[in-house]
Amino acid sequence: MFKKILIANRGEIALRVIRTCREMGIKTIAVYSTADKDSLHVKFADEAVCIGKAQSSESYLNIPHIMAAAEITNADAIHPGYGFLAENAKFSQICADHGIKFIGPLPEMINKMGDKITAKETMIKAGVPVIPGSEGLLNSLEEAKGIAKEMGYPVILKATAGGGGKGMRIVWEDGEMERAYNNAKAEAGASFKNDGLYMEKYVDEPRHIEIQIAGDRYGNICHLSERDCSIQRRHQKLVEESPSPFMTPDLRYKMGEAAKKAASAINYESVGTVEFLVDKHRNFYFMEMNTRIQVEHCVTEEVINYDLIKEQIKIAIGERISGNDYEPQLHAIECRINAEDPYNDFRPSPGKITVLHQPGGHGVRIDSHVYAGYVIPPYYDSMIGKLITVAQTRQEAIDTMYRALSEYVIEGIKTTIPFHLQLMQNDKFREGDFTTKFLEGFKLK
Ligand code: MV4
Known about the structure:
D-amino Acid Aminotransferase, Chain A, domain 1; Dna Ligase, domain 1; 14 helices; binds ligand MV4; 22 strands
């Protein structure tokens, strides 16, 4: 068993990992930037090391600073959380070189999924359905036009180094291709130092449904059912739930098998997520694989009654997983509470939380690092917590969510709570009738 884990992250996920470590009898080391000296993860960890200035590049993304903190505190393992260095193959390799266990996948697993064309080729070989498109990189504008004409418009251009919508362009007709191709290429080059593009047939109004998986070093893989993450805005998820209201037992079986094939194809070890686009006919296609614990892992924890961080740590130690798949036993919904003004284009709203009352009661879970008097720094993402409700049915989970949101009192900053309150009352949402385009037509009253 690990004696001490260093958590290379901040905010709610750092606290989330500390909580599980404490239950497992593992000591924790927090690292923090000067902007986070009063953060709860610093207070709740057994030890804490300041690793640099507020900007992420000087602290949470600074590998030498983090490795130095791990060396002086004698950490046996590093948990990267999500974001920051969680999917950095170089960091995973450096941990291995220093005899410190990276609680996550090996570098080659991260690399195989980080490049989207490589990932797609791997999936085709493994028999996982992918969206029809170009075979690998587009070599020129003329080639792009040719493939689009053959396949039929609309198509979508994507960056091979991308993910999360950067360097992505939808193209509806031949006349738009030149601009879209050049813009996507420039944006990809600027964002990822890699301007490689590929093309796919555009799937209009899809759902984003992802399958949580876990794999151990002995080749056992299981799936832990799906999360529906279709409610998002500009590629930022706002609400996630499990099960998906669009799911059927047959579709879950097929997507579960496909996700396990995807993970097996790279001998995946750790917890991870396979993202799919699902069209209105319930055809599903591999989109990408996330080789990390995700923000929304909690809804899965609630419906299958497992601590995924505990499972992730046990896999890293070398324990075996059972190999059984898991079906949702309950319904869970998560609302991301962000320090953003939903009435002003979700503009960030950092600052001091002057008054705080958090909801509670039956079926309510809050994963958050904030407290009354806490100052939200402007340097990092704006999520200040996750409100998760769980109940026997989707309707009850929504009703509990509405009740819990109504109890929240946060003063001093703007939050996404008014948005969530309105969403929970929306008829289409309550009927489970939504796609990734849902919020494009959503007006806040
Ligand atoms: C697509 C698509 C439609 N057709 N690919 C968005 C982020 C990146 N991971 C892939 N994305 C999409 N790829 C094809 N062939 C639509 C999206 C998309 C999307 C996907 C999931 C969740 C929200 C989305 C919002 C806009 C576009």
